[in-house]
């Protein structure tokens, strides 16, 4: 377990250690019941004072991540530890592997995905559109004949930066969204996730300050933490990232990069206001930092007009724009893009070369017929007319069946509804109960870079048909109601 | 320009700075004619003494990477600098981007690939098989009907670890090569390159010691340098990595990882002897480090038997085994694998999730018909019968036409011939001349993690048909001869 400590940061070392260990535990990278080093050994390895190590462990114990068994040591919390059994497993021939330290502090997306391996029938955790609503026949027919006509697509390396025909088509498509880019400024990636990685890995090193919204996209937090970034977070309100608070942070720290999802923010669904988009750009100029604008699903919209992207307002190459095509078109193709200019672009192309020498050609060619025609417009119109019904159904069910203490925002786009539970309720306990009924959702705590809030959940309404969606939401409402009933029945016990 | 300095290393800081800057220049990440910081500013930024900064610049100047223009400053070497013109370009609105430091010290594979953009007709730099020798019809027919039958392959996310059917087939295939792995131990990656990245990014951080062969695979050096590794190199002789020298390094340093290509080594074609394979495994155990065994093309073989892989000798989960399917099967599918066990495996799967959430499903399914049948055996038999003719042709042409001062080894497998020029000859100058005749090869200096040798070149004989191969090698022989003639004609000038 390698822990990157930023000794120049205002964040106390004990909190940094807490963050690193709690993230590893929450990601399942340190297993339940595993023995942790003693405070003395931790203080020695990390070159911190004994007081700091003790404080870090106290914080972890307070939040129930770890437990100390008198005379035995400190363990990751598990049922065995609670029951005071011997929590250590039998030794195996692979035990030496634990001495191989790693630089992977967090993988919460992975953790949530592992939970799905139990195959819940009602997958409200999915933040994308079900394949039955996507242009399967159209694209597969095209691809089927293309591969016969041009089999070498499977047998030749494509250009590192991506297929030029696809980049040109994407540039044309983005123009319809008011984003003016040339094909030369676009790099094709394996989904948006690789795009975020290319940016983080190229520009962020241990201790660099990255600012993210809180909450934000789980797997983007995973990536920036992987690079050893010091992540500072800014809350989101109805108009998006709180620029007033951002400014305060920038005054005290020197951010290298600000990551934002301005349109139908993940997970809250918020749209950043026009004024804040402009202010954000000004702040990035003033503090000489990069903006990463992640735009995974602005195509899923229930509004008649859309706000210009921050990239379209940017005249100085300050914004790195990430556009994915998985969430509303073809998840299996894993096509994303990262766009930039000048030496920022140049370095991202070099990073793509180092990462995997380039994406497969065939899946790049798959999207062409859609992008080169007006099918995309028709597809999106049709898709959104279906999705708005699902959203409305979801909202109606929540209104009709959710206990009054539970709140949510009405998303004007994107695939998610962000639900806030009573402050005492734990989304993790809720998930545990939901999974036993084959239902999955995303616990909101995974969306916080630090200081997680445990009383939010994200549900997606685009992956399930109306029947399943109804079943899922009703079950969720019923579980939450029973949690509330239970709480109040306990509270009702008269104190004599 | 961020430079990772390992202050605990025996390598002098001036040499570390030299390495970092020279790599950026050789990779084109700092452009020709660009102005470098003054020694005073460098010493301040990197917190090193002025003497150290001066020494680093002297080394760079000695090797002709940079030049100082009196009264102006220090510049990356370029024609303008040589001619004492003003080497600075006009300022543009993107100039601020240069102040955004990056963590990307090297991208030599990318650099070489950019050179290919001039599209040389005779591409002897390619280290893979031409698509006309690959089972294009067979695989494309299968895929064409598969995509019609099951279009959702394009529209659904696959498992993060990779398609189970493919992993099972690969496990069965690897058994024919005496590598015994279960499907659960295999992770599907975007080519071997991503596999190397997953390993490096998970287990290597700034200053960790990685040992590589010298020379070795260019793009693997790019990756380990990207992670800030301190790379130490061990020469290769006829039996592969010099284990006696490796042992000496291990005694002085604490390696975290040893990267090796034991079978038909890239670029030299050497096969590591059985004894050394065993010794390497023992050393990894004794020094508690990982072995990464990269096996890109042991299928391309002109021998009747093969030595067991190091992975197959490993009983304690010490070896991470990387097997690619691009070099002899379907480069365009970008299918590679990384295999490990226990917590090493677990962490690599988490790393794959963080990297791109999983590879495209369709290209994974493309390889199935081959792996699930005996087509692979037939394909390889047929392929190798063609490739041995090309190798023999290449060797005969070299013997008949290459000047006597030039040496090469006879490869028993793999796609390359490693050629050693007279020690005074620069492969870079040779490449410059060759490219003007539309010929490309790989200059050997890119294959050295440090202290490059400039008098080697790597040519591939599997990408070109016999006609082009002949044309390329004859041209190469002619250029080299003319370089030698020129050298001796200069030397012949009588000194009066």
From TrEMBL, chains A, B:
SMART domains: HTH_GNTR. Residues 11-79 form the HTH gntR-type domain. CDD domains: AAT_like, WHTH_GntR. SUPFAM superfamilies: PLP-dependent transferases (SSF53383), Winged helix' DNA-binding domain (SSF46785). The keyword Amino-acid biosynthesis does not apply. GO terms for molecular function: DNA binding; DNA-binding transcription factor activity; pyridoxal phosphate binding; transaminase activity. Its cofactor is pyridoxal 5'-phosphate. InterPro entries: Aminotransferase_I/II_large (IPR004839), HTH_trans_reg/aminotransferase (IPR051446), PyrdxlP-dep_Trfase (IPR015424), PyrdxlP-dep_Trfase_major (IPR015421), PyrdxlP-dep_Trfase_small (IPR015422), Tscrpt_reg_HTH_GntR (IPR000524), WH-like_DNA-bd_sf (IPR036388), WH_DNA-bd_sf (IPR036390). Gene3D superfamilies: Aspartate Aminotransferase, domain 1, Type I PLP-dependent aspartate aminotransferase-like (Major domain), Winged helix-like DNA-binding domain superfamily/Winged helix DNA-binding domain. Keywords: Aminotransferase, DNA-binding, Pyridoxal phosphate, Transcription, Transcription regulation, Transferase. In the C-terminal section; belongs to the class-I pyridoxal-phosphate-dependent aminotransferase family. Homodimer. This is PLP-dependent aminotransferase family protein.
